[in-house]
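Please describe the entry underneath.
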Amino acid sequence: MVKGFRRLKRRGLAKGDRPVAEKLFMRLDPFLVRYQGDAVRISVKPREFLYIRLKYGDYQRRLIEEWRAGKLEVGEIVVNGTGVYIPFKKATAQVEPRGWIAVDVNETNVTAVSTDSHVLRFETNLREIRSAYFEKRRRIQELSKRKPKTSERLMAKYSERERNRVRDLLHKLSRRLVEFAKQHGLGIVLEDLKHIRARIRRSKRMNRRLHSLPFRRLQFYVEYKARLVGLPVVYVDPKHSSTLCPVCGGRLAPNGRRVSRCGRCGYESDRDVIACLNLLRRAPGCGEPPLPPKATEASWAEVERVVIKCRLRDNG
């Protein structure tokens, strides 16, 4: 933790003058852990043990069965204030991709463009989920002065609902994207979004909206699902990917809603598609962008739209 703090301090990204442990956790040495039925036995002293009973669902039960059958390995166990996290490791053979697909994550959609000229737009209601629960939390906070215990209970209840719905939506989105990449034999190009939140400096309202977007969590889901089926994943620098022409490198100017046009060569397209094309250009081995310099309405009509939404209505 100290090394990480010093590294952030040198980059000017650290908060405060000393590191603070915001979340307490411990990593367990594999030699101190044994599995006994549905419990984990942790050696705390010679001949003295701590037993933690595990609660899990059907998905986790399948992983445990595969581990007991010798198909999976167990990684380093982490224990924190909310639960026990047991990572499973699986050896996979990486396939040689026939092409690549670049993924651009936005506030209202996720756009993907492949080297075989597929253009996908995954439309989500993630912003609506975040906005709806922000308003719920604001109303609950107004209640805290009169009924603090009720406010605390409601805050925990709706915060958990929000997390569950966002997680469910991200899993569905990442699964559809990886299934498409697997079907067409495509490696995946993602944006390197490290320290992106430190670079967000807009209005208070826009900062709140952008900071609430789970960029990195979606990428994590996409990456581990892709690697499980043997697809390679690479990260590239997304700097200026939406403002530079993917054909000639000239500066782009807005030319309508979500459309940008190059003043040098005349290339015009949706700005999210442009960002994906630039990501493909920056990824090693991807070759030239798949779309022609003049993006016509006919080619844009071939966009494959995938709508993935999560239920918002609450009954209590």
About this structure: The longest strand covers residues 39-45. The chain has eight helices and 17 strands.
